[in-house]
């Protein structure tokens, strides 16, 4: 081997040694910086997630509003059905009372012992609001038939008196 070849070989091995040392130093530096790098990555992820908070809150508010609206609609439906059922039952009571009167019973006979039937309540009209457009106009709905307790009333709490217990 010639001297120039030996010099090249030494330079090659020396550069290889430098490359190995460099790689080892980079690996050691990366390992030493790993906790800081991991903390920086965790911080970036947390920051990005936290920036979504207003969108998350807005979505939750919209979802809650939709749930409340649906619940109110359901509750209104339940109330309306109850009002209809109570009205139907009270109208049936009034029709049955009238049917008994039509076949010859007197109110005093029906309410006296031993029967103790109560006369169905008469429908009460709602007072008109002063200054309303319908003041002076006839009430909406059918006119009540005398003695039946029917017609024109859809709210049993306001329009028809509740039955009372008799002793």
Structure in words:
By secondary structure, the chain is an all-alpha fold. Helix content is 64%, strand content 0%. It is built from 4 helices and no strands. Mean pLDDT is 78; it is low at 136-167.
Q: What is Rg?
A: 45 Å
Outline type = rod-shaped
Helix content: 55-70%
Category from helices, strands and their pairing: mainly alpha
Order of helices and strands: HHHH
Total of DSSP H or I helical runs spanning 4+ residues: 4
Name the beta content range: under 5%
The averaged pLDDT comes out at 78
Q: Please report the distance between the alpha carbons of the first and last residues.
A: 132 Å
Number of E strands:
0
Number of domains: 2
Largest sheet: none
Low-confidence stretches: 136-167
């Amino acid at each position: 081997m010639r001297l120039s070849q030996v010099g090249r070989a030494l330079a090659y091995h020396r550069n290889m040694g430098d490359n190995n040392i460099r790689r080892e130093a980079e690996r050691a530096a990366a390992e030493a910086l790993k906790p800081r790098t991991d903390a920086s990555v965790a911080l970036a992820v947390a920051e990005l997630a936290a920036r979504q908070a207003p969108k998350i809150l807005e979505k939750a508010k919209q979802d809650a509003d939709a749930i409340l609206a649906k619940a109110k609609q359901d509750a209104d439906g339940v109330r309306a059905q109850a009002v209809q059922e109570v009205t139907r039952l009270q109208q049936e009571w009034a029709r049955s009372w009238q049917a008994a009167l039509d076949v010859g019973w007197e109110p005093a006979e029906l309410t006296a012992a031993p029967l103790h039937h109560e006369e169905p309540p008469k429908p009460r009209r709602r007072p008109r609001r002063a200054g309303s457009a319908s003041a002076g106009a006839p009430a909406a709905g059918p006119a009540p038939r005398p003695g039946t307790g029917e017609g024109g009333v859809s709210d049993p709490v306001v329009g028809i008196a509740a039955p009372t217990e008799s002793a």
